[in-house]
């Protein structure tokens, strides 16, 4: 899939324990992005963070959390991400979604 040089980055901030139809929400989002032809998506697991409730989630041994912060980053053109946003709004019940303009500098050729 080709990413335009003037693209957008969508970041979805959720919890690791969030679910969508019996599977982890981050997994469901990435699979849906692939199914709809989005150029790329990655899940990043955080070591510490907090959200709207200001409750700290951490991987420290003394405060082991089963709900660590997760960020799903999705990159593609503005039109594709605009079309994908309603699906995200349906799937994410608690979290934060941001969009920012990015400049794609290097494109790695796919082996497919």
Q: Topology, please?
A:
Elements: E1 6-15, E2 19-20, E3 23-24, H1 25-35, E4 40-45, E5 48-49, E6 57-58, E7 69-76, H2 78-91, E8 96-103
Antiparallel strand pairs: 1-7, 1-8, 2-3, 4-7, 5-6
Commentary on this structure:
22% of the residues lie in helices and 36% in strands. It has 112 residues and is an alpha+beta fold. The strands form three sheets. Strands 4-7-1-8 form a four-stranded antiparallel β-sheet. The chain has a two-stranded antiparallel sheet with strand order 2-3. A two-stranded antiparallel ribbon has the order 5-6.
Key terms for this structure?
112 residues, alpha+beta, 36% strand, four-stranded antiparallel sheet, two-stranded antiparallel sheet, 22% helix
Number of helices: 2
Distance between the termini: 10 Å
Largest sheet: 4 strands, antiparallel
What form results from the Cα inertia axes? globular
Task: Please provide a brief summary of the model.
With 112 residues, this protein is α+β, with helices and mostly antiparallel strands.
